[in-house]
What we know:
Helix content: over 70%
Number of helices: 15
Shape: globular
Distance between the termini: 24 Å
Number of domains: 2
CATH architecture of the largest domain: Up-down Bundle
Radius of gyration: 20 Å
CATH superfamily of the largest domain: MFS general substrate transporter like domains
CATH class of the largest domain: Mainly Alpha
Order of helices and strands: HHHHHHHHHHHHHHH
Amino acid sequence: MSEIIKPTLIAARRSTMLFFLVSGLGTASWAPMVPYTKDRLAFNDANLGLLLLMLGTGALVIMPVTGILIHKFGSKKTILVASFLIAIILPLLLIMNTPVTMGATLFSFGAAIGAIGVAMNAQAIQIERHYTQHIMSSFHGLYSLGGILGPLFIGGMIKSGLSPLIAACVVSVLLLIIALSQYHYLLPEQPVTEDQEKVKFSWPGSTVIFLGLMCFVVFLAEGSILDWSAVFLKDIKNFDPAIAGIGYAAFSIAMTAMRLLGDKFVDKLQPKKIVCFGSLISATGFIVAVTSPWGWLSLAGFTLVGLGAANIVPVFFSAAGKLKNVPAAVSLPAVTTMGYAGSLAGPAGIGLIAYFSSLPIALCCIALLLLVVSVSYYFKKF
């Protein structure tokens, strides 16, 4: 660690971790609001599915543009503005009562999530450059923690008697407090070198595309657990519908815990081993979940998926931000966009495969893709 700016660096790391928490908490707080939105708009499942695409579309549209915003205004200001937008828009998701206004609001919410996703990773990479060890996993651990706490906060407040709108406003105030109190501790943008300026807006190279494709697969695996684990446990393993969500809970807890501890593992094993072994463990988890004759072992399989995949994306983002002659403002938006596309389009593809074959076969296809990640990353030279 750079001793000259050690206190500043520690404060910047803490504040950036809290902005990762803001992103995870804000994003996950939307999940408990979905049923209320469906009832308010009197939507059927098909209409709701189309509406939900607006969130992902907003994120995908803004992510490539965020590199330009970071170049022009810096990641620090981009993080602050995106945090404010998330906090302001969150309660509006419970107010809009027409499909058009709801779709536009959800698109804007997704855009804010996409912008902070790129900008906070750019800030994290800038901080990591001053450390002698890997620290990226801890940032993503706070995002995962926010993903667990969001539904618990909203659900707990509603259960205690607060209206969903008031509960959302409470979370928004919390997000604003964190943003306002932590903004000044973020690092200012580093000067852009002449070589970086020349390639600032060039088309991403083959290494960036490779990392993006690898991210696509891992995000696909994570998204499939979110969208399909409950269906799999209920329809294939005969779980009670009331507890079928336990598969995603096991996955999420395992991923959060491993990310919070992951920096030490990455330092000891090195990033390449983390990706290769992590992909193998996740692939094994899918196979165990599918082939197990016992429900508890299927849950163990989903836990393995979370343990193995936890630190792969942080390694990819860290690698993207450290590529020679490719500034983070080019590599990060590209890798993030391709990865996020996997979390959106992937589960839909899994549904298509399941329709023409079966859900277990579809999940086995993800295991195969993870094996491809393991082998291809092993032979890739950076």
